[in-house]
Amino acid sequence: MMHPSLHKTRVRQRLDHHDLSAGVSRLVGGSPLRGAAHRRGVLAAFGLA
Amino acid sequence: MGDQVATESLRLNLGGRGAQAVRVTGPGRTMRCWGRSVQLVAAGAVLLTVVGASPGRPAAAGATGGPSGAAPAARALVEPFTTTVASRSRAAKRPSKLLVVVLENHDVSRTRREMPYLSAQAARYGQATRYFGVTHPSLPNYLTMAGGSTFGVRDDRGPGAHRLRGASVFGQALGHHRTTATYAEGMRTNCQQRDTGRYAVRHNPWTYFPAERAACRRHDVPAGTPARGALRRDVRAGRLPTFSMLVPDVCNDAHDCSLARADRWVRSWLRVVQAGPDWRAGRLAVLVTFDEATTPPGTTSRP
After folding, report:
1. Cβ–Cβ gap A2/B126 under 8 Å
2. Which residues of B, range 46-105, sit inside 8 Å of A by Cβ?
3. What value of ipTM does the predicted structure carry?
4. Are B207 and B159 in contact (CB under 8 A)?
């Protein structure tokens, strides 16, 4: 994950494509879809949400 | 501590009451002052820090400094600009846009060895050390990114064989009045439903959602190259969508070609993206991931 505010950040929690999907849904103002419904999202995992 | 904002060019209003000190750091910065305003022009990323109120001091200042840091930190006295700077500050820390780049079929250890540029970017910014694909083969992984589910798909057949019901994250973005796009390398027509050349439709998940076909035909476009085309144009104009996906062709994504080639491809695009206003203002985060390399415990790994 690249963003100017990140500096040598390592996220050790387990993530997969559901977290990516959830992160996008939340970014665009929606609720995560289907199997991603209860995921926080990949942006949140990096402190970017 | 003050708020920080990464900016390429920012004009501030100077004034009398309630002035605040501003510190500018970063490579190649210049601060220009005239009248009651100050403009920051950055050759590289610049951090502007609001360090606190300094009421009663005159409203004029200016300085230049180079990357060596030999010049003292530039300072200016400005009137409160909380609306402008505060909103930019939040954008810097919380991106409003995400660009996802999807590569193919390699795990972390090989990537670290054979993709030095991407590895350096991950080390510099951020990396998820336990990120996994959800299954095999490719298609259900892409569908999970786009729709939160594999939809029960267990093969790589095209959109004609898998007409998925419901919304994708692309349609969800448009439904919430946000913007979205897929930039697909090697694709010849928008939202193309069949493979041609090195374009693989199984790597372009929006094409599998027929209820969103009209939007797909508008916003699922050929990527072009770092030198020309849709993605470069949107990057340079600061018009990247809220969510976008960059899909390399089956050589540049390391499916058919080497990781070294994929690394060069990533570097060529990231240099364009990170020179663009969305990145430099902190509006944009970029995520590079692989579709199906490292599987969770208990799943079957494909050679």
Report:
1. yes
2. 92-98, 100
3. 0.99
4. yes
